[in-house]
Design a protein that fits this description.
The chain contains nine helices and five strands, in the order βαβαααβαβαααβα. By secondary structure, the protein is of the alpha/beta class. It has a single domain, classed as 3-Layer(aba) Sandwich (Rossmann fold). The chain has a five-stranded parallel beta sheet, with helices on both faces. The site of adenosine-5'-diphosphate has 18 residues, from helix 2 and helix 3.
């Protein structure tokens, strides 16, 4: 299996790069943000629990997120591997993912860090909101999400760095050029 984590702040382009990667590497894409939004739009029990949390730009509690992620992996027993997008976002999630994969004699093969500075993120998300209308893309919710990223999610990087798994790729520039650099990082794993 090839199991990858795409890591980066909100608006780094994880979704865009994931879409291209699944095609090239035939992996299953799991975006916890997309899954939460699906639960919310289907008004499921889980959706009702997380709706306000997403609207506020805060992180969903680890236990809820981890259970949902594991369930999604189990739904794909034939997968050649997974791209985890937006997960793990806390060190507890990263540890849970490692333990879960270890139970299946699998592991994370590599982490690609999409490197984008804060000014660029704010600009991109303001542009995205004009199209997506995502409630959590508005200015003060975005600041909350960036805050969550720098207070909690950023600590996931040293966790994987200690395992020697992180490759940093410049996330600014032409989408196809970024994709080529991401592929080079993956192909050298
Ligand atoms: P972005 O990367 O643009 O912030 P996502 O679609 O990845 O957007 O996530 C949207 C929201 O979903 C987050 O702000 C958070 O509320 C929730 N979420 C997604 N993934 C996680 C996670 N791994 N842990 C906790 N909350 C999450």
């Amino acid at each position: 299996m090839l199991n990858l984590v795409l890591f980066g702040p909100p608006g780094a382009g994880k979704g865009t790069q994931s879409a291209k990667l699944i095609e090239k590497y035939q992996l299953v894409h799991i975006s916890t943000g997309d899954l939460f939004r699906m639960h919310i739009s289907n008004d499921t029990e889980l959706g009702k629990r997380v709706k306000q949390i997403l609207a506020d730009g805060l992180l969903v509690p680890d236990s809820i997120t981890i259970d949902m992620l594991e369930e999604e992996v189990q739904k794909n027993p034939q997968a050649k591997g997974f791209i985890f997008d937006g997960f793990p976002r806390t060190v507890a999630q990263a540890e849970a993912l490692d333990a879960f994969l270890e139970g299946k004699s699998e592991k994370i093969n590599g982490v690609v860090q999409l490197d984008v500075n804060q000014d660029e993120i704010k600009h991109r998300i303001a542009e995205r909101q004009k199209i997506s209308g995502r409630a959590d893309d508005d200015a003060d919710k975005l600041l909350k999400r960036i805050d969550e990223y720098f207070s909690k999610t950023i600590h996931v990087l040293p966790y994987y760095e200690a395992q020697g798994k992180v490759t940093k790729v410049n996330g600014i520039g032409d989408i196809d050029e970024i994709f080529n650099n991401v592929c080079t990082a993956i192909d050298s794993l």
